[in-house]
Amino acid sequence: MLVERFLKYVTFDTQSDELTNMTPSTPGQMVFAKYLKEELEKLGLKDITLDKNGYLMATLPANTDKEVPTVGFIAHMDTSPDMSGKNVNPRIVKNYDGQAIILNKEQNVVLDPEQFPELLNYIGEDLIVTDGTTLLGADDKAGIAEIISAMEYLINHPEIKHGKIRVGFNPDEEIGLGAHKFDVEQFGCDFAYTMDGGAVGELEYENFNAASAKVTIKGRNVHPGYAKHKMINSMRVATQFIVMLPRWETPEHTEGYEGFYHLVGIQGTVEETVLNYIIRDHDRARFESRKREIEHLVNKTNSEYPGCASVEFKDQYYNMREKIEPVMHIIETAERAMREAGVEPRVQPIRGGTDGAQLSFKGLPCPNIFAGGENFHGRFEYVPISSMKKAMDVIVNICKDIAE
Q1: Would you place residue 316 in the very low, low, confident or very high pLDDT band (cuts 50, 70, 90)?
Q2: How many Å from the N-terminal Cα to the C-terminal Cα in the chain?
Q3: Catalytic residue among 139, 140, 152, 173
């Protein structure tokens, strides 16, 4: 049922949209949530709630008399706005042979191990791929399928003893809002795991500190024929600002624990230009230093063009490590569960964020476990079926190990 479940889930169009100012941000997410609610009811889960904001929660009651911590498993329903998630048409590539996979012959879209060498890790396995026109949605519908399939497995195998288990599915993770209206108190767990990582073995409890920076540059527009010593072209000033930031501290030049400045959008006219940046760093002190550097460059711009530039920062999330370290036993439990499933844990920092980071700061320690997909957010996304099965096994093992 795991694969069938996933293939059904990706038929729902659940792209989120940061411009709607609604929760969920798109109606398709609520349609999907209602479908999942019915599925959980049919499986026999209890205490099922779906609120007006699209947060779905349910309980698998304990089947042991032992006092056992309540564990939660969380995944998000939305897919990325970066690529269409409508009319997803997946197919299964059986027994992958290590060669390039033609996703779409008409559009010449090819999933090639020369560009994506991690494909060679899956020779001999069955892969679920796209038709080259949409993303797949393994981020994070694979996680949802794994969680629900694990709950079904535990229901069908009552000999496996476990404590109370809570599952939660939320909207709008891809636009950074997945945890904003997540009711941690209602969820009622001692700790939880998001099933939202990538390749097999990923286990993450460190993530970027994150902020956005909106730099606004005001110009002065006059007729170009008479503009000498009068015009201030905000777009030209903006280009000066852009090149003042260190060119090597950008996403295309960084890895591991290295932070960056990332220019994600420009809107400009002579009169006004807006630069939208995101700022990322694992180290909190360096993160704050990056914000001060942008402030410094704004002041430097204003020294040449008085009153021209301003900046508005918005902190988005922080590194969950400080919230996980006091309860490192939950990492040890996950590592043990992975090894029992035949998976070697790969503990690594997330070069991004997760709902788990925000939930950890809301009082629910919540590291992140692999869901199995690769190349998220685009037409080259795929998920090995064996990876999904291993993720499901890890969930079952966590529940079993906690009870033991």
Answers
A1: confident
A2: 27
A3: 173
Question: Mean pLDDT across the stretch 274-296?
Answer: 97
Joined together, the tokens standing for residue 136 give: 């797949």
**How many helices (H) and strands (E) would you count in the chain?**
10, 17
- Which of 13, 78, 152, 172 is catalytic? The answer is 78
> DSSP secondary-structure letter at 388?
H
Summarised one tens digit per residue, pLDDT across range 364-389 is 999 999 999 999 999 999 999 999 99
> Under a CB-based contact definition with an 8 Å cutoff, are residues 237 and 217 in contact?
yes
Q: Is 97 among the residues known to form the active site?
A: no
Closest CA to 391 of 351, 347, 355, 342: 342
Strands 127-129 vs 309-317: parallel, antiparallel or unpaired: unpaired
User: Read out DSSP for 178-189?
Assistant: TTTT--HHHH--
H or E segment to which residue 212 belongs: strand 209-218
pLDDT, mean of residues 225-242: 96
Q: Would you call 17 a catalytic residue per the annotation?
A: no
Residues 6+ apart with CB under 8 A from 68: 62, 162, 163, 164, 402, 403
Tokens of 8: 């059904």
Amino acid at 204: E
pTM of the model: 0.87
